[in-house]
Specification:
The structure holds two protein chains of two kinds. Chain A is mostly helical. Chain A has a single domain, classed as Orthogonal Bundle (MetI-like fold). Chain A has 13 helices and two strands. In chain A, helix 7 packs antiparallel against helix 10, helix 8 crosses helix 9 and helix 12 runs antiparallel to helix 13. The radius of gyration of chain A is 23 Å and the shape is globular. Classes of the chains: A mainly alpha, B alpha+beta. At the A-B interface, helix 8 and helix 9 of A face strand 6 and helix 2 of B.
């Protein structure tokens, strides 16, 4: 490995390609979006370049504030539920025989191949009155008559957790597979029941992994815009839904861009926070 | 009354039997070493004692109480793991105080106990040090202190010193033995190092292929091995296959030996330690139990001299002190004397039972 700083162009070469990709696929589009967000909208038409902050001001209304806080809360709740289920699940998974682990991981990966649309309609069918799971409950005699469970906040949460779950497991898996099984055994011989060992050793020892996974799931859920429309009521629509609405149906690109920029900044701030958190842990 | 009694403890994994009916009585305050080559079942036996593996058969008693079905966290045994298994998210002191925290001991009491345990393992003032900033030997001591925090009935260690370098390992062996003697705690250590076992143990339990071959004090295991495996595994030995011709006499390659305690007829396996073998120049006068051979190799080991002698196609190793070195050179004809009292008669080939 070269320890000194690279000097010639040739020594910079390995970093050039990823840097180029980052510029082409992130910096330029994001720059365009910032430019658009401060553009002046021409009513009924398009927009022209300018430097107005009206779009950001408009954002400070109670309505958008409400939508924003709902979006953040929903994403946070999805992240907590996904990690809350995913962590014990992955912990058990990492302790299964090798062949069984591979089968589970392939199954989980196959969920990733489903599009958000399919997941949304599948859940709305599953929770519908005519073909949903309540029919099963009626058949078993637990319910008097079938009910519609969707759209609702619960349906939205279920769909979004379902979508985030495989990612959560894939991020947690490497860390939990590396966890020394002797740690839990040690805590058992020191008087901890299996459950206590899990909460006093496994969870705290994996704190950084858990925080990183929570942030990943949070950012992932923040971008969801189809599921809120398929499984939620209008009051459950997130900022991503409003961005789509403004950009496509209201033809208000500058305002959509302003909201998108804000969403990116919130995401970046959270990732930065997690890095800061991780650094403090190391010290 | 024995502290720990194992009665026919067995562990099977499918068709593979890791431990075959291990039976053992361990008195209070003993230092026991489970010794054997890797894969002999010693770690599995220790894990069954700790409650981390469920026995497939047999039972386990401590102070006459059956603990075969007691889960690990209710056994009150302290265990040191091969990987040490220190909790990475806790400091040295918090690691040691962990079992106290689990039992709800108040924080200031925990702190006091952790400090006195650190004192015990000679790491005073290290309580706030993160585990990642401790050296190998220090981690070792923290793991030992943590296992002793609850004043356990039984102190179990699984190859605890294998990660340390040779010098530190020797020092820790002696320290561990002294600590055990001071606390008077019944201790079981798993090791594959026979020197380590000889250094520390009151009772050496030699295992191979899932069976206990011999359980005896170190010098007895060395002087009176129960079978060929034990004789060969503990130190160096010469194994001679003999045939009993006349009662009390066995013919071996290169000659005949007069021995007491031979079976009346049939084959016999003899073990004699190299330091017991006497070497004479070929010109020496004849006598009992002397075999003629050719000296093939000599090496100076500093504290001793090792001779390898070809006796009728079989190699016999002899060890002498440098000052007792006979004046013979490689290639010379020599006479090997095997004193009758130094010869251990083993059951022919294998099984003790």
């Amino acid at each position: 490995m070269i320890r000194r700083a690279p000097r010639s162009l040739g020594e910079h070469a390995p970093i050039l390609f990823p840097a180029l990709m980052l510029v082409v696929f992130f910096v330029i589009p994001f720059g365009l979006m910032i430019a658009v967000s401060v553009a002046r909208r021409i009513p009924g038409g398009f927009y022209e370049p300018d430097l107005v902050f009206a779009n950001y001001e408009r954002f400070l209304s109670a309505f958008f504030g409400g939508v924003l806080s709902f979006s953040l809360e929903l994403a946070a709740l999805v992240a907590v539920v996904a990690v809350g289920i995913g962590f014990p699940f992955t912990y058990r998974l990492a302790r299964l025989p090798r062949a069984a682990q591979v089968r589970w991981l392939v199954f989980l990966l196959s969920i990733l191949s489903l599009s958000e649309v399919i997941i949304g309609f599948a859940w709305s069918t599953l929770l519908s009155r005519t073909a949903g799971i309540t029919n099963l409950l009626v058949a078993v005699g637990l319910m008097a008559e079938p009910q519609s469970l969707s759209p609702s906040f619960g349906a939205l949460l279920a769909g979004m957790v379902y979508q985030a779950f495989p990612y959560t497991v894939l991020v947690l898996y490497p860390a939990l597979a590396r966890l020394d099984p002797a740690l839990v055994e040690a805590s058992r011989t020191l008087g901890a029941s299996p459950l206590k060992a899990f909460f006093t050793v496994v969870v705290p020892a994996q704190r950084n992994t858990i925080v990183a996974t929570l942030i990943m799931a949070f950012v992932f859920a923040l971008g969801s815009y189809l599921l809120p429309q398929l499984l939620g009521r209008p009051q459950h629509w997130t900022l991503s839904v409003l961005i789509t609405d403004q950009a496509i149906y209201q033809s208000n690109m500058p305002f959509a861009a302003a909201m998108a920029v804000f969403l990116v900044l919130v995401s970046l701030a959270l990732v930065g926070l997690s890095l800061l958190f991780g650094r403090k842990e190391e010290a | 009354m024995s502290a720990l009694v194992l009665d026919g403890l067995t562990k099977r994994y499918g068709s593979f039997t890791a431990v075959h009916g291990a039976s053992l009585r361990i008195p209070h305050g003993q230092f026991v070493c489970l010794l054997g080559p890797s894969g002999c079942g010693k770690t599995t036996l220790l894990r069954m004692i700790a409650g981390l593996e469920e026995p497939s058969g047999g039972q386990m008693l401590i102070d006459d109480r059956d603990i075969t079905a007691t889960p690990a966290h209710k056994r009150d045994f302290g265990m040191v793991f091969q990987s040490l298994a220190l909790f990475p998210h806790l400091s040295a002191g918090e690691n040691i105080a962990y079992p106290l925290r689990i039992r709800g001991v108040p924080a200031d009491e925990r702190r006091r106990r952790a400090d006195s345990l650190l004192e015990l393992v000679r790491l005073p003032g290290m309580a706030d040090r993160p585990v990642s900033r401790l050296s190998g030997g220090q981690r070792q001591r923290v793991a030992i202190a943590r296992a002793l925090a609850l004043e356990p009935k039984l102190f179990l260690l699984d190859e605890p010193l294998s990660a340390l370098d040779a010098k530190l390992r020797e020092a820790m062996q002696i320290e561990l033995k002294q600590l055990q003697r001071r606390l008077g705690i019944t201790t079981i250590v798993v090791t594959h190092d026979q020197r380590e076992a000889m250094t520390m143990a009151d009772l050496v339990v030699v295992m191979s292929e899932g069976r206990i071959r011999q359980a005896a004090p170190p010098m007895e295991v060395y002087r009176r091995p129960a079978d060929a495996f034990v004789a060969d595994f503990i130190g160096m030995t010469n194994l001679l296959e003999g045939e009993v011709t006349v009662p009390g006499r066995a013919s071996v390659p290169g000659g005949e030996l007069a021995l007491a305690g031979l079976p009346p007829h049939g084959r016999a396996l003899l073990s004699v330690r190299p330091e017991e073998v006497l070497l004479h120049p070929a010109t020496a006068a004849g006598g009992a139990n002397r075999l003629a051979g050719t000296l093939s190799f000599v090496r100076d080991l500093g504290a001793s001299v090792e001779f390898r002698i070809d006796v009728a196609g079989r190699e016999i190793v002899a060890l002498t002190r440098p000052q007792d070195r006979p004046s013979v050179e490689p290639g010379a004809a020599v006479i090997v004397e095997i004193p009758a009292e130094a010869c251990v008669i083993l059951p022919p080939e294998g099984r003790v039972s």
